[in-house]
Amino acid sequence: MLAAIAFYVFSTVTVLSAVMVVSARNPVHSVLFLILTFFNSAALFVLLGAEFLAMMLIVVYVGAVAVLFLFVVMMLDIDFAQLRRGFLAYLPIGALIGLLLFGELVFISWYWTVSPDAVGHAGNPTPVGMTNTEALGRILYTNYVHVFQMAGMVLLVAMIGAIVLTLRHRVGVRRQNVSAQLARTPAQAVELRKVQPGEGL
Amino acid sequence: MTDVQLYIDATSFAPELALAIGAMMLLLVGVFSGDRFSETITWACVALIGLTAFFVVTGGAGRVLAFNGGMVADPFGRFMKLTVLAGSALALLMSLEFLRDEKLARFEYPLLVTLATLGMLIMVSANDLIVLYLGLELQSLALYVLAAFARDTVRSSEAGLKYFVLGALSSGMLLYGASLIYGFTGSTNFDSIASTIGASGMSVGLMIGLVFLLAGLAFKISAVPFHMWAPDVYEGSPTPVTAFFAGAPKIAAIALFLRVVFGPFAGAQHQWFQIIALISVSSMILGAVAAIGQSNIKRLMAYSSIGHMGYALIGFAAASPAGVQGVLIYLVIYLAMTAGTFVVIMMMRRNGQPIEDIAELSGLSERDPTSAYLLAILMFSLIGIPPLAGFWGKWFIFLAAIDAKLYWLAVIGFVTSVIGAYYYLNIIRLMFFEAPAQEFEKPLGTVNAILLAGSTAFVLFFVVLPAPLVAAAQVAAQSLFK
Fold this sequence. Notes:
Mean pLDDT of chain B: 92
CATH topology of the domain at 1-78 in chain A: Four Helix Bundle (Hemerythrin (Met), subunit A)
Number of strands of chain B: 4
Number of strands of chain A: 0
Shape of chain A: extended
CATH architecture of the domain at 1-78 in chain A: Up-down Bundle
Strand order of the largest sheet of chain B: 1-2
Structural class of chain B: mainly alpha
Radius of gyration of chain A: 29 Å
Helix content of chain A: over 70%
CATH superfamily of the domain at 1-78 in chain A: NADH-ubiquinone/plastoquinone oxidoreductase chain 6, subunit NuoJ
Strand content of chain B: under 5%
Oligomer: heterodimer
CATH class of the domain at 1-78 in chain A: Mainly Alpha
Largest interface: A-B, 19 and 34 residues
Distance between the termini of chain A: 84 Å
Largest sheet of chain A: none
Number of helices of chain B: 21
Low-confidence stretches of chain B: none
Number of domains of chain B: 1
Radius of gyration of chain B: 21 Å
Distance between the termini of chain B: 26 Å
Order of helices and strands of chain B: HHHEEHHHHHHHHHHHHEEHHHHHH
Structural class of chain A: mainly alpha
């Protein structure tokens, strides 16, 4: 009963905030609604027993992607009113495409046959006596360890690429040199002067 | 999987591990020592590639599956790995002088080439759709960055961006195909896919998946109709990068292509034959015709490479060990020919600027007779004049096509070689029968001169001693048809 109430609350908020993402006038509000959508979807994942996915959704999407969106929206001066002009003119064709896609989805689900094995798997998503995260980790670091490492290499290349293409060493920039700072002695930094009364330096 | 199993699996992929660990170590060296040591790091990367090749050669024989069947080490893989490694090493060596002249010598360059090579080795040993995709992405991502390596010039940035966007599109198609194949066979493993197709044939969904997968792969070898990126990217990228693009990545993509059509889809030969034949014919025709109007030598090489990929695809269509053997021999010879040609293209500099106009080669025979004669030999080989190596590459492929009763494919191949001869001969005409253009800035450097002499020697003397390559290619091709 409680789970059902929670499901309806979370899914209603998810759908409503998703609608607000596309209809909010202020782009910053859109992104904030997007974050709300992510949080509620994460809650739905928790209800499904997929706590690892829920946490990943928050860490990756809220922590990185949405914040990046927020930066982009706030830093780039985009006239969203201009972008949205002609919304009504394109509405019919957009609705038509949406309807087509929906029709295709219905068509697929009509002919969908669920494998008998799948029902069994869905009832027992993880091996008995093991949390979701542990089960994922066990398979990721054993059967798929090579794939995991390759994905790491792909990310390494992405990082090198970003640095190669964008990092520029400007001349005349004063950088902090910690060892030089630490090596300074009072003798180098402070000078004692005898100041006579009534006279300046 | 136990620890012992993991250790055994890892040892059968010693080349990949050595390359990955070595690249990461050299990355650290580069970060701490800076760009002053970029040439040292380039030589270190070449040595690392040599070490990797040593591991490939000394690795066990036969067919070894590892990582739950996700990766495979077999004679075919070893042959392709050695070819890819040779291509990368050549590209690194010929880049040294150009990058120094262009003030592009940064330590990331050899490392990106090495990491792209790692991706290629993974592609060559893929036995699973996930591994296939990751290898391809690792290679492509490094290549996108390399295309834009001269980041202060508009053309290079444009080339990188264009390659990135179109490459992402092709990866999307490939992934779409892979997901359909997974959905309709229930496995990402090549062996399981093969047995599913063997048991229940090709369904429509699987067919669509295959078409998308092949479209994604055809993009990587720049076969028509997925070739549109090649001329622009070849032209815009710095010349050593173009030389690299024309060699190793194409070879790795062809290897992956061969693995896919003769591995999981061996039972669907009737279906993929039509696709391969179509892209082969259209690549040969476009490669021959579109190159005629080009005045930029790098664009010309792009079209030439499209045409050569078309010839290689004839060997696929033959669908026999002899056909695959032809493809392998063709690729090795193609690598040697393009490497030599690009060395000469890199020599074309004046006033501290690289020049790329074909007309600048006018009268090269008077200004620099040695280079002119060597380039002429390479051009004759690219046309396929006997007894040069280029002829034998085509010979093995056409022979396989005739054995498979694909006479029309061999005839089209022959006709397009004759048409394509026009633009290669045009370069020879310019070099020998036109008034000399202005001198180039300087003659070839030592390393590049050795590379040019070496590739020409290979092309000239292949006919004297073809047996080692032909025999190795035969063993490799046969291992693909288990």
